[in-house]
Amino acid sequence: MPTLKRNQVKVPADVMPESRDEYIENYLKATQGTGRLMLFACDQKMEHLNGDFYGEGIDPSDNDPEHLFQIGAQGVCGVLAGQRGLIARYAPDYPEINYLVKMNSKTNLIKTSQDDPYSPLLHELDYVLAMREAGVNIVGLGYTIYLGSEYESTMLAEAGQLIAEAHANGLIVVLWIYPRGKAVADEKDPALIAGAAGAALCLGADFVKVNPPKATEGKTSAENLAIASQAAGRTGLVCAGGSKASAEDFLSNLYDQIHVGGACGNATGRNIHMRSLDEAVRLTKAISAITLADYEVADALAVFNGEKDFTL
Prior knowledge:
The chain has 312 residues and is α/β, with parallel strands linked by helices. The protein contains 12 helices and 8 strands. Helix 9 (247-259) runs antiparallel to helix 12.
């Protein structure tokens, strides 16, 4: 199992001296002391409205938002990512979870054919810092950028400012970066995914969440991901989990993303929370077994199937 000691955490120069210890503590919390990120993405209630939480193929328990927090508390995750209001409503009952506040969001109602995507800041950082001061276990922030959108420059500027302020206050930042808009012909083009990873580095992000690049002639998706991981430099790259898949397929893809593609973790939402509580908790453990402890796929599947347990 990879381990990261306090003196091995690479602290960015924009972290103020008085916030250095807090940054290190938050980084180690988020990565469970491994340097790898297991992010449980719970921001879809705004991004995808209720389509990911109720309907065919979705466990009925997922329509209750508390399901997300029950999974986060009983499973093995690095951080639970969600909007400030969502976290504010449930965090008092789940103080043990590491929270990452998603600072911007939009719904999926307006399509790219109508207007290029723009996801604005929902509130100022001060409101998040106040929650932290009140005792909520907030370790980081998240922000989405749509590269190629005609509103790209606004999102880049907002993200750059946010990262500088977050680091100054000892928080880590994960950027969601998706090439999207009328100028983007192929959202999963490997060169664009690598470009998104490099943009995250230039903004100073600690981690960047990208969609897995498509396979091309002579290269698998994971092999193309390796180019993006290298382009990200000291910004850790993680892949979005995508729509619900079988546990075996999901875990196999995750293993390849880490061991072939050079990813340093995962960011998974629907594949986890669409399941019953018991099944979702077992899947977080299986995902974390691969992400945080370098389990082979067969051993991680045994964790998912309840034949083995996994704890940190």
